[in-house]
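Notes from hallway chat w/ T.B., transcribed later so I don't forget. T.B. wanted the structure written out for a chain they're using in a teaching module, and asked if we could keep both sequence and structure tokens in one place. Agreed to drop them here.
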Amino acid sequence: MKIVRIDDFEDPRIDDYRNLKDAALAAARSRFIVEGRGNLRVLLDRSGFEPDSILLSERSLRAMERELEALGPRCPVLVAEQPVLDRIVGFPIHRGALAVCERGAGADPLDLARRLLAEEPAPRVIVLEGLTNHDNVGGIFRNVMALGGGAVLLCARSCDPLYRKAIRTSMGGSLCVPFARTRELQDLLLGLRELGFGLLALDPDPAGSDVAELDAASVGPVALLLGTEGEGLSEETLALADHRVRIEMSPGVDSLNVSVAAAIALHRLWVQPRQRG
């Protein structure tokens, strides 16, 4: 482990951390920021992303010493006093633990789906249309991580899963759940169908089937389609769905938060190891 002490806020070794917005860092350097010890542990233990560097307070260095031992010399551990860290983001929300990671080229969504099919007979993927709220996207990644989902596929308008707020809300899910973005959602849906995925649109229309009627053990590969809380899925996407499913709710309530709805549907579709056996 290569430890480097930082005592100057203007030190060029913390340029990527200092006063840069997520969008600016992504555009200029193709990088993203991870913050918080919990997310850093996911990054080091379970993620395919590689950190360029890690920036810690003395306290976080002591708390994470075991996890950091596996780091090679190519990833320096920068250690600074808390006042320097507080100036970086303007307030101490990160609790003295940050990392800069390279985004990489990004996966092709259909290649990702093929890879999942090669690994298991009935993968579950989430397809997001028009989700622009980072809390909702992060919450969906957290649910996919917890409830047996294989990947998240996003349309061109959905927000960035590697935005700091999305990573925080996902509890590190967007660091370890595979994801890919498509330019043309309808083409992606047709491609998923050709691969053998059933397209299930989560939609509150009473004409749809109750999600509670789904038998996870007998359902094959599934792409669960989710839209925004207001407009929902577009008519073009609904027209391509093989089935519409709804979540039964009390009278007078017409919708749930989209991440909550995703959790309910994923749990119903979750084929746990004992069921597979």
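Follow-up for T.B.: The chain has a mean pLDDT of 90. Might be a good example for the class.
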